[in-house]
Design goal:
Two copies of one chain form a homodimer. Chain A is built from nine helices and eight strands. Chain A has a domain of about 120 residues: Alpha-Beta Barrel (TIM Barrel). Chain A is about 40% helix and about 15% strand. Chain A is α/β, with parallel strands linked by helices. Chains A and B meet through helix 2, helix 3 and helix 4 of A and helix 2, helix 3 and helix 4 of B.
Chain lengths: ~220, ~220
């Protein structure tokens, strides 16, 4: 499915700044988020499903799709729009088989070798990074930087024209434009939205930075 | 689906006595296990799916079904026969909807109130306990004992004749018979098999104790 990656908000109970996840989803959607991912590494399955349903309901008025990190079971039970999988999550072929062709499936990529190997026929997008240093996730590898992002984007450009990649990690309104200039179709953000005093305003600022950089690229 | 609970072996990478889970599954099936559950609270999703596939292949020659604890996604991806869900796992109605009517679905029950509330039309069996003290799982509640098991079995007997319940926690060849005498259809075992020097022999001994008690009940 075509997917709008311009402002891809990840919401996570461990990085929610004290807000409920449905509230946070609504705020970022109000501010212009184009895609939301629920990432929950701590809750029981039943609570995950309930949260996913509540977030899906919060996003419905905005027409913003919801993806679930890793958990195909939660996505299926809650009627989410797809999943984002990492390299140690379910294999893309299994996720596609279980979710069907209309689901959105994205995969994390942090090296050129993984970009070359990525099963793009099974995917709708890739998340590329960590581009910058982040506080939201323990980074085992050094950030790839804008140059690393550019190399990976070029692999996908060569493999399939128009296949979209989203820049992830440490992205703010100040540095988002550089990732778009390097070829990203959008930015994926946790802290810059969730920990902002006003997540809707933070989303508007990020979305404006992305839109401006996309316009400059054309 | 009708399910044979006589000797229900739970295999868990945290309690495997240094053996691979497919090896352990094969050994307990050789010794007479009638059902196997893969319970993995630590691995990444991809590794869980790979392990579930390998265990399923190890059990295939014995015709012993494989259930996955909690993870409907892993069960679906690996082609397992169903799931075992706890009270904080996916709701039975969601699990049944995702897995279909031919899957085996079991639910953990440790009180009479939960037994009264259990959605038995959606379930194939219940796991009742912890009956005795166990080392394989952190027990937040005191063991219910054989008398607690008997009270819960009576609830299910009243609600639906023949609906099977399996006794779980701390069960050995020495105390298995008492759980069957109290009305359990079988016993669910981790340590008594996985940590035995010879899991196949331990399974044979447990299965003999169960079969003897079932025969005495008739």
């Amino acid at each position: 499915m075509p997917v709008d990656l311009r402002l891809y908000a990840i919401i996570d109970p461990e990085h929610a700044g004290g807000r409920s996840l449905p509230d946070l989803a609504r705020l970022v959607a109000e501010g212009g988020a184009t895609l939301v991912q629920l990432r929950d590494k701590v809750s029981d399955t039943r609570a995950m499903v309930e949260t996913a349903r509540a977030v899906k309901a919060a996003l419905a008025p905005f027409g913003v799709p919801l993806l679930v990190n890793d958990r195909v079971d939660v996505a299926l039970a809650a009627g989410a729009d797809g999943v984002h999988i990492g390299q140690t999550d379910m294999a893309a072929e299994d996720a596609r088989r279980l979710l069907g062709r209309n689901a959105i499936i994205g995969l994390s990529i942090n090296t050129v070798a993984l970009a070359e190997a990525a099963p793009i026929a099974l995917l709708d997008y890739v998340g590329i990074g960590g581009v910058y240093a982040t506080m939201s996730k323990q980074q085992k590898k050094a950030p790839i930087g804008v140059e690393g992002l550019r190399h990976i984007v070029e692999v996908f450009r060569r493999r399939k024209a128009g296949f979209p990649g989203c820049a992830i990690a440490g992205i703010t309104a100040a540095n988002a434009g550089a990732t778009i200039a390097a070829g990203a179709a959008g930015v994926s953000v946790i802290s810059a939205l969730a920990l902002a005093p006003d997540p809707a305003a933070a989303a508007r600022a990020l979305r404006a930075a992305v839109d401006q950089a996309l316009a400059a690229r054309r």
